[in-house]
Write a structure and sequence with these properties.
Length: 251
């Protein structure tokens, strides 16, 4: 697997500025919520802390709650495009892995914010539920993109000509909601791969958080997807689930 690369390396200046503003708003929201409680944080306070106007806030988030649950509203879209545009010789799993690796390049730098966000969501059940709903919608969209990669001429109900790039998305899963017949045209393998990949990312981040002394996140991320590529066979006792770098196993 290639190394986790710098996110947005190929993005234009305008898009990088938009990503930076969105990240600043989300970080301000999370920090304020961690201190005062999400229900006590206003759009005005978030905007002021991020150094932008309240009107600018709504250029990036549809609602007050989205600033807490969505670190970047375009992550799912970028992952889907990367999967769609990945070299044909890559397997679906490898294409998804590389797409997600690009979005996780700054995990180690954003450890504090991600940790605070998890605590904020745990204290606000309605935000946690909203985050889960958004995650499920993103997962469904990714499964649809994987299905199109497997069968480009198979057609799809998700957009004109079944092309992810031609679909206008106002938000994750904007045109379909989990629990409807939206997944009837996708197939089992794409749905399973999308779900497993999302779980793999979550486990990678959680395992990285828990390690002492810390292990480099890219090592854990690669190891997780190596296990998936191997069909989740039980690893040798001497390596357990730690990266294969010669370190001793946990007792």
């Amino acid at each position: 697997m290639q190394s986790v690369t710098t996110k947005g390396a190929g993005a234009g200046l305008r898009e990088r500025k938009k990503q930076a503003t969105r990240a600043a708003l989300s970080e301000a929201a999370v920090r304020l919520a961690a201190e005062h409680g999400a229900e006590n944080v206003t759009v005005e306070a978030i905007s002021k802390a991020a150094g932008v106007s309240s009107r600018t806030f709504f250029n990036y988030f549809d609602s007050h709650d989205d600033a807490f649950v969505m670190m970047d509203t375009r992550i799912g879209e970028r992952v889907r495009h990367a999967v769609r545009d990945a070299p044909a010789e890559l397997s679906p799993l490898d294409a998804v892995r590389e797409a997600m690796a690009g979005e996780l390049a700054d995990v180690e730098q954003r450890h504090e914010v991600w940790s605070l966000r998890a605590k904020v969501l745990q204290k606000s059940p309605h935000l946690l539920a909203r985050g889960l709903g958004l995650h499920m919608a993103e997962e469904l969209d990714l499964a649809r993109t994987i299905a199109r990669r497997l069968d480009p001429g198979g057609g799809s109900k998700s957009g004109p000509g079944g092309d992810d790039a031609s679909r206008t998305v106002d938000g994750p899963g904007a045109d379909d909601a989990p629990g409807t017949d939206a997944c009837a045209d996708i197939g089992l393998y794409p749905r399973l791969l999308a779900a497993v990949a999302g779980t793999a990312v979550r486990v990678s981040v959680e395992h990285w958080y828990s390690q002492s002394p810390p292990i480099a996140f890219p090592d854990i991320f690669r190891d997780v997807f190596t296990h998936l590529s191997a069909g989740l066979r039980q690893p040798p006792a001497q390596t357990d689930d730690r990266p294969s770098d010669g370190r001793s196993t946990e007792s």
